[in-house]
Specification:
By secondary structure, this protein is mainly beta. The protein has a domain of 125 residues. The chain is built from 3 helices and 17 strands. The strands form 6 sheets. Strands 3-4-5-6-13-14-17 form a 7-stranded antiparallel sheet, with no helix packed on it. Strands 1-2 form a two-stranded antiparallel sheet. A hairpin with a 2-residue loop joins strand 5 and strand 6. The longest helix is centred in the middle third of the chain and has 5 residues. The chain is flat. The termini are far apart. The C terminus is likely disordered.
C-alpha cells in the first residue's frame, strides 16, 4: 500500500540532494588559524531502499436478518497491521555526522475495531416505523516508531495511539506562597499563587519536560455513531437523525483562551473561563476568591510560560451528540377527471 504523505514532504526520497553551506563552516586543514570556508553538503540523504508499506488485514463480516427481515444488521470486525511505514529516523545519534535526518520504512501501527449498521422496521396498521443506527469504533496502537531513546519509558510513543495528546498533569492552582515553597520547583518561568500547579511524575523534585506524559486520547474521534427514526402515515412523513462522536480530546489554546497572552487582547471565551477564576484577596477583598480549584488561573499580562502550555488543565473532552436532520413532510394528491 502507498502513502503520499512522506516524512518531511520529500518528493523523491530515493534521490539525495546537495547544497551549499549558508556560512563559512569548514576549516579544512587550517586549524588554529581562525579561518573557515564555504562548502557543499548533503541537504537530504538518499533512501535508496524505500518501498511500499505492507498492510495485513483480517476482516470478519456478519449479516443478520430476523423476524422476516424486520430486524437487519451488518457487522464488520477488522484488524489491520501496517509495517514498513516510511518515517524519519530520529534514533540516529549526532556522532553519525549527518546534517539531515534520513527516513526509512521502519514504523509499524496496528488498528482494530468494528463497523456496524442496524435497522428495524415495523408496521402498525397504516403507520410505518423505521429505526436505524450505525456505529464505527477504531483504535490504533504504535507498535514501532524510530525515535530518540527517552530516559523515561512513558515518553516513548510505542504502545500509545497515533497522534496521542501529550502534556503535564495539572493539580489545580497554587493556593499561596507556602504551597509554592512546599511543592516541587517548576522550571517554566516565574510563577506565583493562582498559577497552575503540576504533578512531579518522575519524582525528581523538579517539574520540567520530563514530566510530560500521555493524557486524554487523540483529537481524531475513535467512535462515530448515528441513530434516527422515520415514521410515515398516509401522506404524512416525519424523520430525525442524530449524529455523534466520542473517544477524543483536544487542547484549548490561543488568544481567546489565554487571557492577554497577545497584549491587549483579553476577550476570553465564556466557556473557557468557567464559573469562576482565581482572584487575589487584595483585589477582591474576599479570601474565598483565592480558590485553588478555580476553573481559570490568575490573570496575567503577556505570555505566561507556566500557565500557557499543554496540560490536563486545558484538555477538553471532544465527545458530542447533535441533531443533524429533522424532516416533516406532507403530500396531497389531486385526482383529475376527463369529460
Amino acid at each position: 500500500m502507498g502513502n503520499d504523505q512522506l516524512a518531511g514532504g520529500t518528493r523523491f526520497p530515493y534521490l539525495y540532494t546537495i547544497g551549499q553551506t549558508s556560512s563559512n563552516v569548514y576549516q579544512w586543514a587550517d586549524y588554529g588559524l581562525d579561518r573557515a570556508y564555504l562548502g557543499m553538503r548533503f541537504t537530504q540523504v538518499a533512501s535508496p531502499y524505500v518501498t511500499w508499506e505492507v498492510s495485513e488485514k483480517q476482516n470478519l463480516g456478519l449479516d443478520i436478518a430476523l423476524f422476516r427481515e424486520k430486524f437487519i444488521s451488518y457487522i464488520d470486525l477488522f484488524d489491520e497491521k501496517r509495517t514498513g511505514i516510511y518515517m524519519r529516523r530520529e534514533f540516529l545519534p549526532e556522532i553519525v555526522g549527518l546534517e539531515s535526518v534520513p527516513s526509512a520504512n521502519v514504523g509499524a501501527v496496528r488498528s482494530r475495531g468494528f463497523d456496524g449498521r442496524f435497522e428495524f422496521r415495523q408496521r402498525l396498521g397504516e403507520v410505518n416505523i423505521t429505526a436505524r443506527a450505525n456505529m464505527t469504533y477504531s483504535k490504533n496502537e504504535v507498535l514501532k516508531r524510530d525515535q530518540t531513546n527517552n530516559v523515561y519509558k512513558y515518553q516513548n510513543m510505542e504502545g500509545y495511539r497515533v497522534d496521542q495528546n501529550v502534556g503535564l498533569i495539572a493539580l489545580g492552582l497554587f493556593k499561596d506562597y507556602d504551597d509554592i515553597r512546599n511543592s516541587p520547583k517548576q522550571n517554566f518561568g516565574t510563577y506565583q499563587p493562582g498559577d497552575i500547579k503540576y504533578k512531579d511524575v518522575n519524582g525528581d523534585g523538579v517539574i520540567d519536560d520530563g514530566d510530560n506524559v500521555a493524557i486524554g486520547s487523540t483529537r481524531r474521534p475513535n467512535l462515530i455513531y448515528g441513530l434516527g427514526t422515520s415514521v410515515s402515515y398516509k401522506n404524512f412523513d416525519f424523520s430525525f437523525h442524530f449524529q455523534g462522536a466520542g473517544k477524543s480530546s483536544f487542547f484549548t489554546y490561543g488568544k481567546t483562551v489565554y487571557a492577554f497572552s497577545e497584549g491587549e487582547w483579553g476577550q476570553v471565551l465564556k466557556g473557557i473561563m468557567g464559573d469562576n477564576r482565581w482572584i487575589s484577596a487584595d483585589i477582591s477583598g474576599d479570601p474565598s476568591t483565592e480558590d485553588p480549584n478555580a476553573s481559570y488561573p490568575r490573570l496575567s499580562y503577556g505570555p505566561n510560560p507556566n500557565n500557557f502550555r499543554n496540560s490536563t488543565f486545558w484538555l477538553r473532552n471532544g465527545q458530542y451528540l447533535r441533531l443533524k436532520t429533522l424532516d416533516i413532510a406532507t403530500a396531497y394528491l389531486r385526482r383529475s377527471q376527463t369529460a
